[in-house]
Amino acid sequence: MNISVVIPLLNEDESLNELYDWIVKVMQSNRYSYEILFIDDGSTDNSWKVIESLSKKDSNVKGIRFQRNYGKSQALNAGFKKVKGDVVITMDADLQDSPDEIPELYNLIVNEGFDLISGWKKKRYDSKIRKNIPSKLFNAAARKTSGLKLHDFNCGLKAYKNEVVKSVDVRGEMHRYIPVLAKNAGFNKIDEKIVEHQARKYGVTKFGIDRFINGFLDLITIWFLSKFGKRPMHLFGLLGTVMFVIGFLFAFYLGIDKLFFNPAGRLITERPHFYISLITMVIGTQFFLAGFLGEIILRTKSKEKRYSISKKINL
Ligand SMILES: Nc1nc2c(ncn2[C@@H]2O[C@H](COP(=O)(O)OP(=O)(O)OP(=O)(O)O)[C@@H](O)[C@H]2O)c(=O)[nH]1
Ligand SMILES: [Mg+2]
Fold this sequence. Notes:
Helices cover about 50% and strands about 15% of the residues. It is an alpha/beta fold and about 325 residues long. Guanosine-5'-triphosphate (GTP) binds near residues 10, 41, 69, 96 and 207.
C-alpha cells in the first residue's frame, strides 16, 4: 500500500464527507493505493456515524472510536499502530489542510528519501494575537531546544516514512513534538514544506491559549527526556553526590574545629556552616534517591493502558 492517511478528530461531522471526497479524488488521480484511517476521539456529534457510512461505501476507510476523549496524541498513537502504507500522512479533519499536498509529500518521502516532512503554514488564516504570536514564540523555543530547524512544529499536516511512526511513542500531549521524537529515535532526514492553510470552514476550534502553556512544559519534558530519560542516575546521582560531598566537607570542618581548635567556642548549631551542611546533605540524598528510583522505574516496564477503544471498522 502506498499511503495511509491518519485523521484524528473531535466533533468534525460537517467536514468529514467533503474531506473524504477530496482525499479520494487526489488518490485516484495519482493512482495511489491507500487507506484513510479516522480516529474519533470520543466525539459527541455525528462524526462516528459519518465515518461508519463512509466505510460502508468504501472499504479503504477505516475507523477507531475511543470510549471517551483521550487527546490528539493518543489518537495518533492508536492510528500509527495500525497503518500499513509506505508513507503515512497525518492531517486535521477540519479542511484546513489541503489533500492536494499529498502527492508532493509522498514524492519527498519515497523519491527524495526523507524520513519526515513537516508542513509549514507560512500564511495562516487565524487570529493574529491568539495564534500567530504565541505560535512564533513557541516554535522559536522548540527550535532552540531541539536543534531542528522547523518553523511550524504543531502543523497537523505531516508525512512520515512508515518506520518512523512505528518507532515513535506519542503520548501525553507530545503530538506537537513528533519531529523531535523522530530525531531522538535516530531519524535524521527531517525537513519542512510550505503548505496551503485555509480558514476553518465548519465547526469550532478545539484548542485555546492553554495549549501554549502546556506546550512549553512538554518542551521541557522532552528536552529532559532526550538527554537523561534513559539514564536518570547520571543527572540526579551526580547532583546528589556533589551536594552531599559539599555538606560533608562543611560538617567535617565543623567537627575538627570544635574538637581540636575551638572547644570553648560557639555551639556547632549556632554556626551558619551547620545549616549549609544540613541542607546540602539532605537535598543531596534526595537527589540521589530520585535518580535511583528513576532507574528502578525504567527497568520495570509499565503496562498501563492508555486508552480504551469502543469500536473499530475494517481493522
Ligand atoms: N483525536 C483528537 N483530535 C482532536 C482533539 N482536539 C482537536 N482535534 C483535532 O485536531 C485538529 C486540529 O484542531 P483544531 O481545533 O482545528 O486546531 P487548530 O487548527 O489549531 O485551530 P483552528 O484554526 O481554530 O481550526 C482537528 O482535526 C480536530 O478535530 C482531541 O482531543 N482529540
Ligand atoms: Mg483547525
